[in-house]
Each structure stands twice: as C-alpha cells, then as structure tokens.
Write a structure and sequence with these properties.
Helix content: 55-70%
Strand content: 5-15%
Strand order of the largest sheet: 6-9-10-3-11-12
Distance between the termini: 48 Å
Number of strands: 12
Radius of gyration: 36 Å
Number of helices: 21
C-alpha cells in the first residue's frame, strides 16, 4: 500500500462490486429469524393498512346514500360507527406491529454492526507493523467507528423497509387496479421518469460519496495527529498554523458533504412532484366523470383512490431513500471491506507448530530486509548469539538497529535468509508461541489508560501482585510508584501523560521483566532515565540478564560496555563485531571513534 498522510486522498485498491453486499448480508445471517419475523409482521401491517381507504370509501358512500334517501339515517350512522371501529382496530394493530418491528430491527442492526466492528478490530490486531507504518492512525480509526456507525440505519431499517415496501407496492397496485384500471395506469405513468432520474444520478452520487469519505478520513487523521502532538504544538506556538490546516481540511469535508448530499435530495422533490401531478390528474378526471354521471364513480371512490395514490408513492419514497442510503453506504463499505481484505503478511504458515520452550540461541543467516522495494535496510546480516549472551547493537540513526530486533520477534517478513532460535527457523513456528517467550521493550514506552499495576501486568495477566511488585523493584520503579497517591493502584492517562518519560520507561521495563522472557529485547531502554537511576537499574539488569539471551540497543555506550558482544551496524551491514575491549583496540575503528567522542563530550 502506498504511503499516506492526512492531506492525501486514499485510492481504493479494490473497486466496489455487488458481491460486497452479499458479504454484508452474511453478517445478517445469525439474525435471519428475527429479520424474517420483522418482515412478516410488517407485511401483515401493510396488508391491513390497505383496507383503510376501502373502509373510508364505504363510510362516505353510506353517507352519500343517506343524503339520496337510499338508506335510512340510522343505517348510515351504524355503518359509519362500524367503519370507524374497524379503522381504529387497524391503526392500533399497525402501531403495535410497528413497535415490535422497531425492537427487532434495532437488535438486528446493532448486532450486525457489533459483529462487523469486531471483525474489523480483530483483523487490525493481526495486521503487521508495515500496515500502520504506511497509514495515519486517524484514517484507520474512522473506519472502525464512523464508517460502521453510518451503516446503522441501512441495517436497522433499510433491509426490512425495502422488502416490506416492495410487498406493499404489490398490494397497492392490486387494489388500485381492482378499483379502476384506467386510474391505476395514469398513476404508474410517473414511474419511468423517476427511474430515468435515478439512472442518471447514480454514478455521480456514488463518486460524490467516495470523495466525501476521503475528506472525512483526512480530517479525522489530522485531528488525531494534532491531539497526539498537542504538547509539541503548544511548545512551538503552532496553534495558528494548525488551525489554518484544520480549517482547510474542514472546508474540504464540508464542500464534499454538501456536494454528495445534494444527490440525496434530488429524489424526494421528484417523487413529491410526480405525486402531486398524478393526484391532480386523477382529481380532474374523477371530478369530470363524477359530474358527467357517465360512470359509477362516487366521492367515496375518489377519496379512496387518492388514498391509494399517496400510499403508492410513500413506499416509492422509502425505496428512493433506501437507494440514497445504499449509495452513501457504498463508499463506507468499500473502505471497511478494503481494510478487512488487507492481507496479513506476517502470519503462521501452513503447518506451523508451537515453539518449544526457548533456551536462547539466536542465529542470523544471510538475512536481508527492506521496507520498500529496492531499498535494503539490512543486507546479508550474519551472527550467532549464544545462550545467555548479551548482544549490544550500536550505530548511527537509520542504520537498521531496531529492524534487527524487530525481525527476531517476527514483526516483519524477511526478504531472504533465516533467523533460527535454538536451531528452529522462526517462520516454522506459531507467532504466539514465539512472542510469548520474549520480553520486548520498544523505543516508544507506551502506557495504557488504567492503573500502574495493570500496565505492568499487561504482558503476563496471570502474574500476582507480588510478582508485579518484584518486577518493579528489579528495575528500580518501586520507589517512585510508592510516592504516587495510590501507589500501584494509581490511575494513569492514555500514553501515561501524568508520568515523566523516565517513569514511563521504568514501567515498560517492569512489564518486560514480568514476562520472564528467555530472550530479552531492549530498544533504547534507558534513554529517558537519569544517570543515578540508570546505575541502580543496571544492578537489577545484571541479575535479570543472567541465563537470558538479550539484545540491547543503546546510544549511551557506557551502558553496554559489559555486553558479551557489541555490533556496530551501519547502512544495513555489520561493520564491526566484538567485545568492548576488542573493538577499542581497532585503530580508527568505528566503535572506538564513537565511544571516544562520547567520552570526550562527557569530560567537557
């Protein structure tokens, strides 16, 4: 997938087709019984309501008969009362059925949305780092929340109403032809006009909603980025510049929405105008025939037929609204299914077996890797870390240090070569069984909303409180935790905004320690920790690293002097490898120059 940012519209890699609606309907499958029940009772309600114009016709005709002395006043009164009772019963039954239908369709709609959102979220959990490297997180979030929410009305009412209204149309047309075939044909003459307009606008409407979803996605991405970077924004007084960018994106979203929604508003006035015209024609014909007395048309008949006209165009209006919702939903469905169809590039291969208990020997054999085609980050890397060894990886920014440790945890697939743990190719074992035996502390010390106890326990949910405290003491986090208002039960905000950078790193360190890993990966684990704390932490680490294979990335070379082996990596290659003393003996060596430059800087 091409790299994206907040001001770049996303291009669909898979074009929408009707089969995606079939995919959506699969999520409706578990609720088939409720959906069928809702449809059946709505068809019954629709059929009952079809008799209301006939009942009204009957009442008015009896009043007319009474004025012409064809029936007595008592007979007419009794018949009107009976018709009124019948209409009341029909209205009450339809109201009860409507309430029951709303309950059923709401459960169906929300159930489908719940299942679809769960499917999308679970899939996002499985996607590799490369997917998140290429896409703003705000554009991912909008798919899980906003886009799926926008399908709510379509799923809750659209399907049931559409099926019900199709049956209603059959009933209405049948009653209209039963009353008068000529009037029925006149009423149907407006349909070709409506169909032609729908056909003309459908492509433009779908395109307009695609553009609108792009602009909404861009806006959401920028809002997410701005919130995450609010401290930097205020530090550099960028509020004004950011507001200008936001206003531009917000204006793009507004214009896109107005352009898209105008197509939705086209059909409603068209239907209203066609209804008014056909009703007028029926009134003109009906009244003229009524005055001529050449037919058996009565006032009651005319009122009944006009009642069917309004009922005929009501479901047409509903179907037109459903079509609008459908065109709106298309743009969201395309994005949702595009995400669900995103391939899980890093996954268990067929026949993968659980990793046995790791001892800790790690081998890189001719490993090459690139994030983008033809741009190698690692080029033919070879080394062996024996059990219990600590391997330090140093070098300039962008040399490939973090990539090496990410590949050990199999966060990315190799271009070529092999990584073996205890002689087993890591691509032959299940990812879960591999990663659960590793302790990883990333450069970004991410803290989740919740208590400090929960954050430390995140990687080992079976750990006791005593285990958590022991891990915190090992990394020298216990003392600062106990100074907080509720100790280990202190609530911290998302990303640990209430904690200092050093405190966040110590908590992340404790999290990695608690996992009791056989292989420990520390990526700039002490970069935000003060020197005094680092000295204390080093004492705990020396105990922790015993018997464990560890990989340490550090810019402070004083922290890795005692490592079993130090690798100097640059431009994707291992330039130098050896112990601290061995590398310091290399005249004009890369590691020696780096170490001496830091040493001279500290002396100053």
């Amino acid at each position: 997938m091409a790299r994206n940012k907040y001001d770049i519209d996303e291009e669909l890699e898979n074009k929408f087709d009707a089969s995606q609606f079939k995919r959506l309907l699969k999520y409706v499958g578990p609720y088939k019984g409720m959906l069928i029940t809702a449809i059946v009772i709505m068809i019954i309600s629709s059929a009952l309501s079809m008799f209301m114009p006939l009942v009204m016709k009957d009442a008015m005709e009896y009043v007319e008969y009474c004025t012409k002395k064809l029936v007595t006043e008592d007979e007419a009164t009794r018949r009107v009362i009976i018709d009124a009772v019948i209409m009341t019963v029909i209205i009450l039954l339809c109201a009860v059925i409507l309430r029951f239908k709303i309950l059923l369709t709401s459960k169906v709609g929300q159930g489908v949305i719940h299942a679809l959102r769960k499917k999308l979220f679970v899939h996002l959990q499985e996607l590799p780092f490369s997917y998140y490297d290429d896409k703003p997180h705000g554009k991912i979030q909008v798919r899980v929340v906003n886009y799926i929410n926008n399908l709510s009305d379509l799923l809750s009412n659209g399907i049931v109403n559409t099926i019900t209204d199709m049956f209603s149309l059959v009933f209405i047309v049948g009653f209209m032809f039963y009353l008068n075939a000529t009037f029925a044909i006149v009423c149907l003459l407006g349909l070709p006009i409506l169909i032609a307009i729908i056909w003309l606008v459908k492509t433009r409407q779908r395109k307009a909603w695609q553009i609108q979803s792009n602009k909404q996605s861009n806006l959401n991405a920028y809002i997410s980025e701005s919130i995450n970077g609010i401290r930097v924004t205020q530090s550099f007084v960028r509020e004004g510049a950011n507001t200008i960018i936001f206003n531009r994106l917000n204006e793009d979203a507004r214009k896109a929405w107005l352009n898209a929604v105008k197509y939705n508003f086209i059909l409603s006035p068209v239907v209203d105008n066609i209804t008014a015209i056909t009703t007028s024609v029926i009134y003109v014909l009906g009244v003229s025939w009524l005055l001529d007395g050449k037919t058996d048309i009565t006032v009651g008949f005319l009122v009944a037929f006009v009642g069917y006209i309004s009922r005929f165009w009501a479901p047409i209006t509903t179907l037109a609204s459903f079509y609008n919702s459908l065109m709106t939903a298309v743009s969201y469905l395309e994005r949702i299914f595009e995400t669900i169809d995103e391939p899980v590039l890093v996954k268990d291969k067929e026949g993968a077996v659980p990793m046995g208990e790791i001892v800790g020997k790690v081998e890189f054999k001719d490993v090459s890797f690139s994030y983008e085609d033809d741009v190698k980050v690692l080029d033919n890397i070879n080394f062996t870390a024996e059990v219990g060894q600590s391997y330090a990886i140093v070098g300039p920014t962008g040399a490939g240090k973090t990539t090496i440790v990410n590949l050990i945890s199999r966060f990315y697939n190799l271009d070529s070569g092999q990584i073996l743990i205890d002689g087993v190719d890591i691509t032959d074992v299940t990812i879960k069984s591999l990663r659960t035996q590793m302790g990883v502390m990333m450069q970004d010390s991410f803290i989740f909303a919740g208590t400090i106890m929960d954050n430390i326990r995140y990687g080992n949910m079976d750990a006791t409180d005593e285990d958590v405290i022991r891990a915190a003491k090992t990394v020298c986090a216990h003392d600062f935790i106990m100074t907080l208002e509720n100790g280990y039960d202190t609530e911290v905000n998302e990303r640990g905004s209430r904690l200092s950078a050093g405190q966040r790193q110590l908590i992340s360190f404790a999290r990695a320690v608690l996992a009791d890993p056989k292989i420990l990966i520390l990526d700039e684990a002490t970069s935000s920790i003060d020197t005094e704390t680092e000295i204390l932490l080093q004492q705990g680490l020396n105990e922790l690293l015993k018997g464990r294979t560890s990989f340490i990335i550090a810019h402070r070379l004083s922290t890795i002097k005692n490592s079993s082996c130090i690798m100097y990596v640059d431009k994707g290659k291992i330039i130098e490898m050896g112990t601290h003393d061995e590398l310091m003996e290399i005249p004009d060596g890369m590691y020696r120059n780096l170490y001496m430059s830091q040493y001279d800087f500290l002396k100053k």
